[in-house]
């Protein structure tokens, strides 16, 4: 099982580097060639979303972290934006908190819509998607089947 971690300043110019690294590690992990473009696009969307979370926080120097893991027959990528966010509770979900953006404040909700559109794009590109938010930041976890064998299946 190989794990690669990439940390970068939340600047748009670093998203391309993350995409290239993810594609190279995915290829080495045995992800099918036909899926590599999907990996590249999904990582680009997730990293762009993470960089966008830093836009209104000029004094925030926390990095975006991308973790790539080829264990257990799956190629998994986690993108952590590092921006603390309130986690939605069941009570908040019942009240609809965070589900519909407030567009009444001069287009401020457009950022929320753009983020949700990015998630919709990612959902169409990955086999498995998990999105979480909390005090350590927002995390998008994506995975695809790989050719890597887990320790249990080898030998």
Describe this structure in words.
The protein has 155 residues and is α+β, with helices and mostly antiparallel strands. It is 35% helix and 20% strand. A hairpin with a 4-residue loop joins strand 2 and strand 3 (74-80). It starts with a strand and ends in a 10-residue tail after the last strand.
Q: What distinguishing features does this structure have?
A:
5 strands; disordered C terminus; globular; single chain; 4 helices; 35% helix
Topology:
Layout: E1 3-8, H1 15-29, H2 36-53, E2 64-69, E3 74-80, H3 90-94, H4 109-125, E4 128-132, E5 139-145
Antiparallel strand pairs: 1-2, 2-3, 3-5, 4-5
Helix pairs in contact: 1-2, 2-4
Characterize the overall form. Answer: globular
Q: Structural class of the secondary structure composition?
A: alpha+beta
Please bin the fraction of helical residues: 25-40%
SSE order: EHHEEHHEE
Mean pLDDT: 81
**Count of β-strands:** 5
Oligomerization: single chain
Which spans have pLDDT < 50 for at least 5 consecutive residues? 89-110, 150-155
Radius of gyration, taken over Cα atoms and rounded to an integer in Å: 17 Å
Distance between the termini: 15 Å
Characterize the biggest β-sheet: 5 strands, antiparallel
Strand order, main sheet: write it out: 1-2-3-5-4
The fraction of residues assigned to DSSP E strands is 15-25%
Number of helices: 4
